[in-house]
Specification:
123 residues, alpha+beta, three-stranded antiparallel beta sheet
Length: 123
């Protein structure tokens, strides 16, 4: 892949429900990422947050990993091939180390925020 800029409609990230609760494990697809770097950063933070939501106080890394595979959500950047961020490359680090707030803040990178009504944000 030579172009990091988005295809028509923007890069898309697919959220997968690992618990099997959604049809084909797909929870949703989020489009509108202007660059691959933006889509990759969103996917990474989304998974990081999902891992932390599966972490219970005092749980081991193995227990966190098992909980994530049972109840968590994965994120996949579509149509990016080898340039896409993949959870498998960082999952062991995620379960071994607690994340800070910024590492988990996928909402600030969500392109759907750009569609929000500015008057609603002011309230």
């Amino acid at each position: 892949m030579s172009d990091l800029f988005a295809p028509d409609g923007g890069w898309r990230v697919r959220i997968l429900d690992l618990s099997g609760g959604a049809q084909d494990n797909i929870t949703e697809e989020i489009g509108g990422f202007d660059t691959l770097m933006h889509a990759n950063a969103f996917a990474r933070r989304y998974v990081r947050d999902s891992v932390e939501r599966c972490r219970l106080p005092g749980s081991s890394a193995k227990e966190v990993l098992e909980a994530w595979f049972a109840f968590g959500e994965d994120a996949v950047v579509l149509d990016a091939g080898e340039a896409a961020w993949k959870s498998a490359t960082e999952l062991s680090d995620f379960v071994d180390t607690l994340a800070g707030a910024e590492e988990r803040d996928w909402r600030s990178l969500d392109p759907r925020r750009d569609d929000a009504d500015p008057e609603e944000d002011a309230e």
